[in-house]
């Protein structure tokens, strides 16, 4: 591990997590926002459901690790909510089992340390027409509907309220954008840059409002190696240098 040790923020989930560095994704945005403040660690697995997640919880998040994450952002549900296949194969997980799997994940993460914080992301909506148009011929018939996404999203939110985990209601948040059907997805289900901006906005809102000590909102966290140096850019007065450690002028969006 390179040093100094920074707080660790782990993104854990299925393809919406694995692909969060593609297409201007929300993982890459968070890495930019938290540069010099925290390390964003990606643990995303395309096609996974909550069953596969609980199989590897101890490997990804060992309880005896010397350093535990400061924050874990979790997303499972989109694959769980797919309709069952007649063969019994596939990623579908019945809703009651999905809830219990997510409960297992929450309890395990809560046990890592007193200062490990957790945010769950609920299932986002999808563009059913676009999804059908883009379905690969390598796949058998896939049943994905907005109604199923809503059911699993609501179940995730209710569980989070029950176990004391912060949650982002992506199913509702994305649909607040007028043109969400056409602007928020790359293929009807995975997030575009516009969809990812909504995810980041909602995550930062949770972090800003949470009464966690220490705060994990980026503006409240110390910046690594901040301060003036004679090797920094020289100021206009020609007699001093500037501290660029917290400059954000280059960002497309001025995140709050």
What keyword list fits this structure?
10 helices; five-stranded parallel beta sheet
The amount of beta strand, in percent, is: 5-15%
Q: Describe the strand arrangement of the main beta sheet, using strand numbers.
A: 2-1-3-4-5
Mean pLDDT: 94
Q: Structural class given helices, strands, pairing?
A: alpha/beta
Helix count?
10
Strand and helix order:
EHHEHHEHEHHEHHH
Radius of gyration: 20 Å
Low-pLDDT runs: none
Roughly what percent helix?
Answer: 25-40%
Largest sheet: 5 strands, parallel
General description of the model:
The protein is α/β, with parallel strands linked by helices and 256 residues long. The protein is 35% helix and 10% strand. The chain has helices at residues 15-18, 26-33, 50-55, 57-60, 95-110, 128-134, 146-163, 170-174, 180-183, 193-209, and strands at 8-13, 39-44, 71-75, 117-121, 166-168. The longest helix is centred in the middle third of the chain and has 18 residues, at 146-163.
Briefly say what this structure is.
With 256 residues, the protein is of the alpha/beta class. The protein has ten helices and five strands, in the order βααβααβαβααβααα.
